[in-house]
Structures are given as C-alpha cells and as structure tokens.
Amino acid sequence: MPRGLRSQLLLRVLLLLLLLLPLAGALELHDPAGPAEAAEEPGSGPAWPSFPFRDLRKWARAAGALSRRYWALFCCRVWPETCSLDKEAPAGAQGWSLPLLGQQYLDILTTWYCSFRDCCDHGDCRVSNNFTGLQSDLSVRLHGQHLARELVLTTVRSYLELPRPDKALALSFHGWSGTGKNFVARLLAENLYRDGLRSDCVKVFITMMHFPHPKYVDLYKEQLTEQVRKTQEHCHQTLFIFDEAEKLHPGLLEALGPHLERQVLENHKAESPRTIFLFLSNLGGNVINEVVLSLLKAGWSREDITMEHLESGLQAEIVASTAAWTWVWDRRLQDSP
C-alpha cells in the first residue's frame, strides 16, 4: 500500500475511534414515526435505539456520515488549500451537531498531526521569523557579546523585511572557539524557523567534514551550487551556515559569488528569495583578543568597545589570508547597517 494512502487510512481509523465516542450526544436523529409513537412510556428509562436490523442500519449510516464529516473538517484544518467542505451548509441539515467533546478530540488530533507535518493557514509555516524571541534570546541567553546582540538582530531583521531583496545577506562571526559563534547561529535558526537547525530551509556545512579534500574542489563546487539551488527552490527563505569557514577552499567561496552580487530583478511581481550566508570563523581571533585586552587595560568598559575598534585589525588579518576571504569581507561590509 502506498505510504500516503496508508497515512490517510491511519488518520481515518484514529478519527473513527476518537470521534465516535461522543456519537450519542452528537446525533440528533429525527424519528419519522412522529412524537406520538416516540413518546416514552410512564416509568420507562431513557429511550435507546433498539437492535432490529432497520435501526442498526440507520445508526450505522449516521455514524458513517458523522465520521466523513469529521474527516472533512480535519482535512480543512490541515490542508486548507484542498478543502471542499461546504461551510455554508447548516449542521442541522446533516442530521447531527458537533458536540464539545468531539470538537476537543478534533483539536487534539489536529495538534498532534501538525506537530510533525506542515499545516498552516497561509505562507510557509516552516518560517517563523520571531524577531521578538530573537531579541529576547540575544539579551537573556547570550553573555559578553554586546556587539553581536546589537548587530545581528538589526541586520537580519532589516534584510528579511525588505520587500524584494536583490542579493543574499552575508554575515561572518569571528573569534576563538568557545566565544559563542555557533550558539548565536543556533539562536538565529531557532527564531527564524519552526524546526531550528533541523529545518529543511537550514543547511549546515562543516568544512573539514563536507569539503575535506582540496583535490575534489570542483566536485564540491558542483555539489554546493546544486544544494543551494535546490534549497532555494524548496524554501523562499534559506539559511546556510558554514562552520570552520576559514578552512573553506577559495573556489567554494567563489561558487557563492552569484548570490552575493546584486541582481537585476526583471519580474517585479515574483517574490524574491531571501538567503542568508553565515560564516563562522576562527580567523581574526588573535586580533580581537589583543584589541579588547588593550582597551580593558586602558580602563575601557567592555560595553564601550565598538566595531570601529575591531574592524581595521580584523580586516588586515583577513586581507593577509586569501583574496577570496577579502572578497567575502567586502560583501559583508556592504550588508552592515
């Protein structure tokens, strides 16, 4: 049995098991015999359906109609684009009403399904762009990195709120291991995407794991270019994280060039993709530490240190590394607020 059909069958069975429990309260069957024949005898208990075949078949038809109605409601919740439910039809015309217990079961099942599948009313539910949460995380959970706290939120939010960006956003985090580069990258992914680093729209590359052999750089370039293209086709907003970026082959950085150059937008109605390239690098760690230490010895407060104090020395070390990294640094400066 195909997987999709098997999933639908499983959901139908779950609906039937869960939603037929309130069947007695849900069904408002009208007895064609009329009120006189349906009247209870004095001293008798509540009227329950008898077990002749005719009554059993009537209840089975009603149960089937109720199950189909619940299934239609469930489909309209999780797949609104394929909803065929006649919302204008009154519930009474179907011979039943939606009880509170049945509504609760429907809510529980919908929540369970949407916990591992995509279902939302509009837009791409994989993308959350929770800037309030990002601001809170950077303020509360990130310590000792006031520059990152100020610049990351401003730069990312400004870019993602552009109506039609004409290029990708390039960000680079520099410093020794343990200074919080990966932590900030994770906070960024968690607040921009529902599934964080596990999102289909987020790709993480570790240089020595994904691109370990320089002799295969041409193959890596093809694979990287294809991965970026497929991810952009699948998601209108993407995040690519390159860890140990200082070890990237210059050819791989050049492969990202077309995305970091400004493009002429020909179709003014089409939605422009939003792509963020995040480079995590140990490059410049020594310079940053030396500058910060000298300023602290001179009596400066850590919070008084600005990007202007760091950029000149950091840029000098980057220029001395490779021409490709100089090119990336120049694109990063163009994206600074």
UniProtKB/TrEMBL annotation:
User: By its UniProt entry, which Pfam families does this protein fall under?
Assistant: Torsin
Location within or outside the cell: Cytoplasm; Endoplasmic reticulum lumen
Q: Which InterPro entries match?
A: ClpA/B, P-loop_NTPase, Torsin
Q: Which UniProt keywords apply?
A: ATP-binding, Cytoplasm, Endoplasmic reticulum, Glycoprotein, Nucleotide-binding, Signal
Q: Does the keyword ATP-binding apply?
A: yes
Tell me which species this is from: Pipistrellus kuhlii
Q: Where does the signal peptide begin and end?
A: 1-26
Q: Which residues form a coiled coil?
A: none
Q: Provide the family line.
A: Belongs to the ClpA/ClpB family. Torsin subfamily.
Q: Name one GO cellular component term.
A: nuclear envelope
Does the keyword section mention Nucleotide-binding? Answer: yes
Can you say what this protein is called? Answer: Torsin-3A
Annotated SUPFAM superfamilies: P-loop containing nucleoside triphosphate hydrolases
Q: Which GO terms describe its molecular function?
A: ATP binding; ATP hydrolysis activity
PANTHER family recorded: TORSIN, TORSIN-3A
